[in-house]
From TrEMBL:
<comment type="function">
    <text>Accessory subunit of the mitochondrial membrane respiratory chain NADH dehydrogenase (Complex I), that is believed not to be involved in catalysis. Complex I functions in the transfer of electrons from NADH to the respiratory chain. The immediate electron acceptor for the enzyme is believed to be ubiquinone.</text>
</comment>
<dbReference type="Pfam" id="PF08122">
    <property type="entry name" value="NDUF_B12"/>
</dbReference>
<keyword id="KW-0496">Mitochondrion</keyword>
<dbReference type="GO" id="GO:0022900">
    <property type="term" value="P:electron transport chain"/>
</dbReference>
<comment type="similarity">
    <text>Belongs to the complex I NDUFB3 subunit family.</text>
</comment>
<keyword id="KW-0812">Transmembrane</keyword>
<dbReference type="GO" id="GO:0005743">
    <property type="term" value="C:mitochondrial inner membrane"/>
</dbReference>
<keyword id="KW-0813">Transport</keyword>
<protein>
    <submittedName>
        <fullName>NADH-ubiquinone oxidoreductase B12 subunit, putative</fullName>
    </submittedName>
</protein>
<dbReference type="GO" id="GO:0032981">
    <property type="term" value="P:mitochondrial respiratory chain complex I assembly"/>
</dbReference>
<keyword id="KW-0472">Membrane</keyword>
<keyword id="KW-1133">Transmembrane helix</keyword>
<feature type="transmembrane region" description="Helical">
    <location>
        <begin position="49"/>
        <end position="71"/>
    </location>
</feature>
<keyword id="KW-0999">Mitochondrion inner membrane</keyword>
<keyword id="KW-0679">Respiratory chain</keyword>
<keyword id="KW-0249">Electron transport</keyword>
<dbReference type="InterPro" id="IPR012576">
    <property type="entry name" value="NDUFB3"/>
</dbReference>
Length: 77
């Protein structure tokens, strides 16, 4: 069945995709490339959101274990 509007959806999808012809011809692409490579990659940005969380979690777990096994409260009945 022919499209009565004459609009080709495949052209729209190609134009809307980030890998379209315009995205390949973007004159600013090389200036923006540093934002997504190396230390600024998506993984590295999310890895450094909470810098001391791992050390703090281990220290807190160690303190909880120390308190549970070595600091007994004698006043409870």
């Amino acid at each position: 069945m022919a499209n009565p509007t004459g609009f080709d959806i495949s052209e729209f999808k190609a134009a809307a995709s980030p890998r379209s012809v315009w995205a390949k011809r973007d004159p600013w692409a090389r200036y923006e490339a540093w934002r997504y490579n190396g230390p600024f990659s998506r993984f590295n940005r999310f890895k450094r959101i909470f810098p001391g969380l791992g050390i703090a979690s281990v220290a807190f777990a160690g303190y909880c274990a120390y308190e549970h096994f070595f600091l007994k409260d004698e006043h409870h009945h």
